[in-house]
């Protein structure tokens, strides 16, 4: 290669380096540099420059929300070129950006495959900070797939890796996403703490786009807690940064959150202007989820302002967008808003029809979130009378539409139906957490609580213990006395476990005849004392109250503990291994 060619290749590398450095502050300016570098690399037949030019161009287009099809083709070509050049890190970058593109299209299963391939590549390259980022991004896709316990584990692992190498950016991303997940799960105070930590760490970086995202999340969380005065300054800063960087997703997120906060404070003109601008920012991206969210907010705003007809038009558009991506939770909420809008217009049959669909959508959402067939069946059985009653009320509303007292009758029917919906929602929430046979926590809830307690123990350096408990010779009980007696034994054992534990402990059925205890603030030695007493109490219990011929029931227990940085999966696996050791050592005993 002659000296002139080397100089021109160095020019390509410099352009790409400058573009990457400025992508978070001026994405459009960075895109101009990327395209210049890519054109020069093609002219030079510089393969490495072409690969990285395609990758950096795709990144800037993704940030700006430009043409998805062209961006996808560019990133696929970049991944193939990186692979042919043996550049594992570059290939992982391309896979990660392709996954983000599929997530934006709501194709989360394809995104998950790409995220897992990216994580494998990061681990092959041995880059700890990049591995932390891959774990974080994998967790985001798992959140979209409603696999929260797995997402929580990946986010905690990402945070631990970022802290190990003092990666402020990685820590900020992990805290931001932990806050988002905890807010979704109902842990609002913990979510706020994570958002505040994310904001503190992002201040040590040059990533202003992430600062915009964090401030938008923090402001939205504060507004949801009724703290609008604290929320608005964060949201205004998030919007100012997004306008400066050109990041389209940050722009519409900040606009929508600020519009909602102004609406809550009664500043309706400001709210409407911000929400309409958010909608214009979304339209070029094809993001139906975002479109449904902002249209719903606009419809709600119009309804509060007394323009029910405009609200119906906006809410119908939001419903079409939500249905297009099977966003069942959003569909349920939109049917409820449409019921209120049609009621305001005096169209009582349409209002009741939407209220009935809201009920059906709510039941479907909760049914999908349950992993147990028993709970799904109970949900369907519980919904049938409600659906029959809703249909009957729809017929009555049709007959009453021409009568003078139709409005009073509708109000009475609506109140009764809403009361039934509230009771149903309470039942569904209980079923989502409880084991249908024993009444203690189910496996899904145990996993979530164990992950939360592990994060808490890691954060404060407090001890945590886990015990796995298995009924000895349970098959013999079923064979000798019947499965009904076996079920009664499990119910009685669950009661003994719950009565023997503190209010802060978690007791649940892990599967079959196996139970788990999560013991916060408990050292391994103290956990052994608790479990020894429990083992002896179960052995001494009068089991003839369950069945006259049942003389004795015993359990084997495996205990594991950690005083620093426990991993939920490793802690549960260790307790399970020690339970197996207790079984091998003769049963009716506790092993550590």
Structure, explained:
It contains 25 helices and 5 strands. It has 592 residues and is mainly α. The chain has a domain at 444-591: Alpha-Beta Plaits, CATH 3.30.70.270. It has a 5-stranded mixed sheet, sandwiched between helices. It is globular. The protein starts with a helix and ends with a strand.
Keywords:
globular, mainly alpha, 76% helix, Alpha-Beta Plaits, 25 helices, 592 residues, five-stranded mixed beta sheet, 5 strands
In short:
It is built from 25 helices and five strands. The chain has 592 residues and is mainly alpha-helical.
What's the helix and strand layout?
Layout: H1 3-22, H2 27-44, H3 47-64, H4 68-85, H5 88-104, H6 108-125, H7 128-144, H8 148-164, H9 168-185, H10 188-202, H11 208-224, H12 228-245, H13 248-264, H14 268-282, H15 288-304, H16 308-324, H17 328-345, H18 348-369, H19 373-400, H20 406-433, H21 443-460, E1 464-471, H22 474-481, H23 483-500, E2 506-511, E3 514-520, H24 524-540, E4 555-562, H25 568-584, E5 590-591
CATH class value of one domain: Alpha Beta
Q: Which shape, going by the Cα principal axes?
A: globular
Class per helix and strand makeup: mainly alpha
The average pLDDT value, as a whole number, equals: 84
CA-based gyration radius: 28 Å
Order of helices and strands: HHHHHHHHHHHHHHHHHHHHHEHHEEHEHE
CATH topology of one domain: Alpha-Beta Plaits
- What's the N-to-C terminus distance? 66 Å
- Architecture (CATH level 2) name of one domain: 2-Layer Sandwich
Q: Specify the helix fraction band.
A: over 70%
In CATH terms, the superfamily of one domain is: Reverse transcriptase/Diguanylate cyclase domain
- The total of beta strands comes to 5
Order the strands across the largest sheet as they lie in space.
2-3-1-4-5
Q: What is the oligomeric state here?
A: single chain
Low-confidence stretches: 368-388
Biggest sheet layout: 5 strands, mixed
- Strand % is 5-15%
* Number of helical regions: 25
